[in-house]
Design a protein that fits this description.
Layout (H helix, E strand, L loop, with lengths): L10 H4 L12 E3 L8 H9 L4 E4 L6 H21 L8 E6 L7 H10 L4 E5 L5 H7 L4 E6 L2 H9 L4 E5 L12 H9 L6 E4 L5 H9 L4 E4 L1 H4 L8 H9 L5 E4 L7 E4 H6 L16 E2 L4 E2 H4 L16 H26 L5
Parallel strand pairs: 1-8, 2-3, 3-4, 4-5, 5-6, 6-7, 7-8
Antiparallel strand pairs: 9-10, 11-12
Helix pairs in contact: 2-3, 3-4, 8-13
Length: about 350
């Protein structure tokens, strides 16, 4: 895994086979707690980007099996009906942590269903990787630091998701320029970049920096299919980067949240009390962190509408193509003739 080879590798060949030729746009839609559901995942995959959801969004192991079966059947039918259509694979997110008492049963379900992509979070995935590789699946792991990246690679993951400053939910503090640059020095495999990516221009920028794919979450909260209350979607469209609060208060792990949702829960974003955590109640027990405190990335200020996911992805692709044209023109303007 030497960075000296990176410049000579075709980005398409850096991707695992399951992703080659199966993407209309170089994007993985991030798995979001509560937000991501089969309807959203299906719309994303059928539009040519990887759709994903956390296993814990299916509130019981049997439900998870049903969700995966439904998604597989929907995508298989679409492929059979229109063989030329670009249809992306889906991914399931597993929380690899001792606090997740469903990990073993959810992993067993994903293995039985031969889920094509597993996204692991919170701890180096260890034996999860070998068990997924045994049926031909691939594992991408969320990291926020170089050390986390090194540990994940020691565990044999196929790709890294760099969750940088500005990403929604549990985000890191490093600039994408810093973290991506350092990781590329020792890893020439597939990298997915997360952090305030909400439009086609940002997708292309992620690739220009050396990432292979962009990771988009917040933009998909404000879609018709997202499984959240209308007020959450409206708050996304009405907020800006200054409305984002970065704190470990609500889950014990630092993350980005919408300040207006914190205020609505009866708390002062500038003066949070001691305690907290995902199981805590606020406002005389009427508010719960996992339900009423809403995550969002810093790119929220560019989001102004709540379209169907398919329409959004069509727009993202148009923005991406336009940005590539602009970049090509700029590159030609500053190009230096080879010696």
């Amino acid at each position: 895994m030497t960075g000296t080879k990176e410049k000579t590798i075709d980005p398409e060949l850096r991707l695992p086979p399951v992703l080659r030729g199966s993407l209309a746009l170089p994007v993985i839609a991030a798995p979001m707690f509560i937000v991501s559901n089969p309807e959203l995942v299906e719309a994303q995959c059928l539009s040519g980007i990887v759709g994903s959801f956390p296993a814990l969004n299916a509130r019981a192991p049997d439900t998870l099996d049903g969700w995966i079966t439904r998604i597989k059947e929907k995508l298989a039918h679409a492929r059979q009906t229109d063989p030329a259509r670009i249809i992306a694979p889906f991914a399931v997110n597993l929380i690899v942590h001792v606090s997740n008492d469903r990990l073993e049963s959810d992993l067993a379900t994903c293995i039985a269903q031969e889920t094509p992509i597993i996204i692991t979070s919170l701890r180096a995935p260890g034996e999860v990787v070998d068990r997924v590789h045994a049926y031909g699946g691939v594992v991408f792991h969320d990291v926020t630091t170089v050390r986390h990246a090194e540990k994940a690679l020691e565990g044999g993951v196929d790709g890294l998701i760099l969750v940088c400053a500005g990403a929604g939910g549990h985000a890191g503090t490093l600039s994408p320029f810093a973290l991506l640059g350092e990781v590329r020095r020792f890893f020439d495999g597939p990298i997915v970049l997360a952090g305030a990516i909400t439009n086609g221009q940002a997708i292309l920028a992620a690739q220009a920096m050396g990432a292979d794919l962009a990771y988009m979450g917040t933009r998909f909260i404000a879609t018709e299919e997202a499984n959240v209350v209308p007020d959450y979607k409206a708050m996304i469209t009405q907020s800006s980067a200054s409305d984002i609060l970065y704190t470990p208060f609500f889950s014990g792990i630092p993350g980005n949240y919408l300040k207006p949702s914190v205020v609505a829960a009866g708390l002062d974003p500038a003066d949070l009390p001691l305690g907290g955590g995902a199981s805590a109640n606020f406002g005389s027990g009427r508010k719960k962190a996992w339900r009423d405190i809403w995550g969002s990335g810093q790119g929220v200020g560019t989001i102004t509408d709540v379209p169907p996911a398919t329409q959004l992805i069509t727009r993202l692709r148009a923005e991406y193509v336009s940005a590539r044209s602009v970049l090509a023109a700029a590159s030609a303007r500053y190009a230096i003739d080879p010696v």
